[in-house]
Each structure stands twice: as structure tokens, then as C-alpha cells.
Specification:
The chain has 181 residues and is mainly α. It is built from 8 helices and no strands. The longest helix has 27 residues. The protein is elongated. The protein starts with a helix and ends with a helix. About 11% of the residues have low confidence.
């Protein structure tokens, strides 16, 4: 299946691999730009969906294969939004700290973040902080462990975290607007 996908992207395997990486990178950026918290997973889902259909697609599709991936990504994004219900996908920008040289704990953003985190239930605060405690490959394993401990699927954990971030972001908006008033 994957070999067939690469062959569709380009007859030269090295060129196909580069094109694959380029498409995957663009898909991740598209999902990130739209505020998806699981951009890499959604990009992989889009690629897998295209890979499963590539034997059919090759027969009739004319044009740049990357465009087919982007169309598939649009559909996956729609599904992603439906799974969230009324919650608007948000980025974890309010949880990521600025570089050390720019970090000032006396800034209103820091105060508001602390207030909002303190306003959460202890369980939700602990979940949110644990969810973002690791980076790169370690975070994937952490998320699996958390989901297993909670007795839910990893995707259900992602949705729960998205909802917690949305409420935290709303709290931050309210706090910062009252700080500036």
C-alpha cells in the first residue's frame, strides 16, 4: 500500500519520498493553522486514507497528487470539528511558555494563567499539566499511559484536553480583558 502510494507520487523512489515528506509537512501545517491539537495524527490519518484508495485514484486522478491529499485533509478536518461538538479547536498557545529570556512572571498573562489554572478542579488541572509535561516522542507515550490509566481511548483523551484548553482559553480571555479594563 505504501509502496503504491510512493509510486503514485513519483516514479523515482527518492523523489517520491521527498514529495511524501513535503505533503506530510504541509498537512501538519494546515491542521496546526486551523487550531487542531492533534495535527500530526490528522495528517497521518489523511495520508493513510489516501494510501488505502491509491489503487483506485491512480486510474482516474489527473493532476498534482498533493491536491488530492489536501482535499482529503479538508474532509478529515470537518470530521474532527464534528467530534468536538460546539467546542472550537484551539491551539495550546496559552500553555506554552515563551523563551526564557522573554518570560516575566509579573506579566498579566502569567497571573491570569495561574488564576485560571487555580480555578479548575484539581483533577482537571493535573490532567492538563500532565498532558503537556513531555515533548516529542515521550509525549506520545505519556498520552497513551494517561488514556490507559483513565480507561479511555487516546482520541477521547485528546478531545477531553481540547475541551479543557477551550475553557482555559476562555478564562484567559476574560481575565486579560478585565486586567486591561
Amino acid at each position: 500500500m505504501f509502496d503504491e502510494l510512493l509510486a503514485w507520487l513519483n516514479a523515482d523512489r527518492e523523489q517520491a519520498a521527498r514529495k511524501y515528506e513535503d505533503i506530510r509537512g504541509r498537512l501538519i501545517r494546515i491542521f496546526m493553522h486551523r487550531g487542531c491539537t492533534t495535527a500530526e495524527d490528522l495528517a497521518d490519518k489523511a495520508i493513510n486514507q489516501v494510501a488505502r484508495k491509491v489503487h483506485e485514484i491512480r486510474a482516474y486522478y489527473v493532476g498534482d497528487p498533493a491536491l488530492y491529499f489536501y482535499g482529503t485533509a479538508r474532509n478529515i478536518y470537518s470530521e474532527y470539528c464534528k467530534t468536538l461538538g460546539n467546542v472550537v479547536p484551539v491551539t495550546p498557545e496559552i500553555l506554552s511558555a515563551p523563551p526564557v529570556e522573554e518570560f516575566d512572571p509579573s506579566e498579566p498573562e502569567h497571573d491570569c494563567l495561574e488564576k485560571c489554572l487555580d480555578g479548575m478542579t484539581p483533577r482537571n488541572r493535573a490532567l492538563l499539566l500532565e498532558y503537556y509535561s513531555e515533548k516529542e516522542a515521550a509525549k506520545i507515550e505519556r498520552h497513551r499511559e494517561m488514556a490507559e490509566r483513565l480507561g479511555i481511548a487516546v482520541n477521547a483523551l485528546r478531545i477531553r484536553m481540547c475541551r479543557l484548553r477551550a475553557s482555559l482559553k476562555e478564562c484567559m480571555r476574560e481575565c486579560l480583558s478585565s486586567e486591561s479594563a
